[in-house]
Amino acid sequence: MDISSSNPEAAVSFSNLGHAYVPDTWIFRRYHASVRKGEIFAILGPNGRGKTTLLKILLGAIQPCEGTLQIDGDVAFVPQLFQVSFDFSCLDMVLMGRARKVGLFTKPKASDLNAASAALERLGIAHFAELPFHQLSGGQRQLVIFARAIAAEADILVLDEPTSALDLQNQQQVLRWIYALSRQDGLTVLMTTHHPHHALAVADQALLMLGCDRFDIGPAKHVLTKEALSALYNVTMARARFQHRDRSMETLVPVFEACPDRTQLLETRGVSEVNSTIM
Amino acid sequence: MSDVLSTQSRGSLHARFLLSRTSSGLLLLALMLAGLCIASLGLGRYAISVQTIIRIIGALVWPGEQLQPAWTANEWVVVAHFRLPRVIVAAISGMGLGLSGAVLQGLFRNPLVGPNIVGVSQGAAFGGVLSILLGAGALGIVSGAVLGGLFALTICFILASASGSGILTLVLTGLVVSAFFGAAVGVVQYLADPENQLPNIVYWLLGSFASADWSAVLTIMAPFIVATTMLLMMSWRLNLLALDDLDASMLGVNVKRLRWLIIFLVTLIVASQVAVSGGIAWVGLIIPHFARMIFGADHRTLLPASALLGGIYVVAMDDIARTASSQEIPIGLLTALVGTPIFAWLIHKNRNRGWRSE
């Protein structure tokens, strides 16, 4: 796969990227990608493969050990878990997204307050405005932080597992916002996710972190295949095709088995117990 | 805040209501502080009526020929030369301590933080007692305290930067620096002449406004005005420092630079206060809690509220210190005696509100 990293249309591009916390113990190496402006880019990989490290490098929080990274535009970040030390209202939290627009020795103006209110309204959570942030559930907090990123009016949105704390309805809602922000507002979205079907629903490109210096990158539909994901996560994946509103749709779903090998499990118990439970 | 929650928000109308409520609350506190200061000028063994006090202040602000002054010479001396500078120093000390406490608690995301945490109070105390030991005059003690505070801060800064930029590192470094300067103060006390110097040192360390004069007002006023103005201008930025470092830096905040700029400004306030009136414990720790309970966590209102409450608290404590008994009680003892039980109660009552322990 050869993707030019000098694409002027690229919002984010990196080449030969690698990082090791301990010398010569590479988390990943020789990664490259080019994300065009307005594109949705999903990063998938098992736990511990370095998704968070890659994200931190893209955010500039970690200096990569090798490789080059180019970012064109302001970045807004939505972290996965969110703690705040003091009892701020949700409107106060969203207003913090305006930090780049507010000078060191000045305070937010009416226009900043309007942008914050508009962001809450856009996500349908205007009624959260005066509620204390820490009284919200994890999913509700994620929505508020999402609103904060919108209020920031950044060019690039980086989301760390944006759907992880959400129920099904809010997962769909967040995916729709991500899509709308990319297509209507022209934002570039980089997101990590553990849900291939989420990436398939919205992502233009996907990066699959297979191993230290092995990765696959390309259009989400080409990269996120049943075979690749089954091998990567060691979980049976099934392709589901169905008709929905006169459209033919397709997605991948994991098939979870509670017990990998039923006979083996049963043998470890007494035989009589096997009879009583199986019959 | 429960009434605010139950009424829910209705857009900007509600925000405007909150805003007006906040500003009228601050205005009320400012009027209370001003009233208390004027009343305090009349308090003492030599009682003076409010009317006379206002006339004397009027004459001080607009000096002119008074053919028939409406006050006695004694009243003029007591108000203009003793009580007025004392009340001003007490008010500014309290405002500075309340404000610095609120700033440091926000900065360290920890409600148990006070001006002593970054070693500033102890450094300033060391600078002050060393100056007393070396036989310096009032100006020398003041400069010694400011230099000591900045010296402690610099050491804290170097140690903390060398071992990482996390909050915990900074708190632990502050602890080490405080302990070191605490021991250094002990060494100075050990070396001091027990007949003349030691009583001065002990009395200075306990803290007192008894020695406040117009030069003390100048000493504490100049750094206070500069640092407070800058901190109040940056108050909204302090909200951002309550986020974690990565998150705040992603919002475009230069966390490290902002943190040290704020610590430097707080040092100016605290060191000049220590230089003028010695260590006054617990004000910077408990006052911001009350302010946060009344006005919420937003630093835009928390900082002025903490400053005003701190001023009211310290002026009131000083009134008690000089009128409760025939001999003056050191104010540092009084604030510690009152402050510690209040703080214990606050920890118990407030464990799930206003700040989070996680």
Automatic annotation (TrEMBL), chain A:
Q: Which domain of life is it from?
A: Bacteria
One GO molecular function term of this record is: ATP binding
Q: Which UniProt keywords apply?
A: ATP-binding, Ion transport, Nucleotide-binding, Transport, Zinc, Zinc transport
Entry's InterPro entries?
A: AAA+_ATPase (IPR003593), ABC_transporter-like_ATP-bd (IPR003439), ABC_transporter-like_CS (IPR017871), Metal_Ion_Import_ABC (IPR050153), P-loop_NTPase (IPR027417)
Q: Which SUPFAM superfamilies does the protein's record reference?
A: P-loop containing nucleoside triphosphate hydrolases (SSF52540)
Annotated membrane-spanning segments are none
Question: What does the entry give for GO biological process?
Answer: zinc ion transport
Q: Which residues form the ABC transporter domain?
A: 12-236
SMART domains, per this entry?
AAA
Similarity section: Belongs to the ABC transporter superfamily.
According to its UniProt entry, the function of this protein is described as:
Involved in beta-(1-->2)glucan export. Transmembrane domains (TMD) form a pore in the inner membrane and the ATP-binding domain (NBD) is responsible for energy generation.
What is the protein named? Answer: Putative ABC transporter ATP-binding protein
- Organism annotation: Nitrobacter winogradskyi
Classification from the root reads: Bacteria, Pseudomonadati, Pseudomonadota, Alphaproteobacteria, Hyphomicrobiales
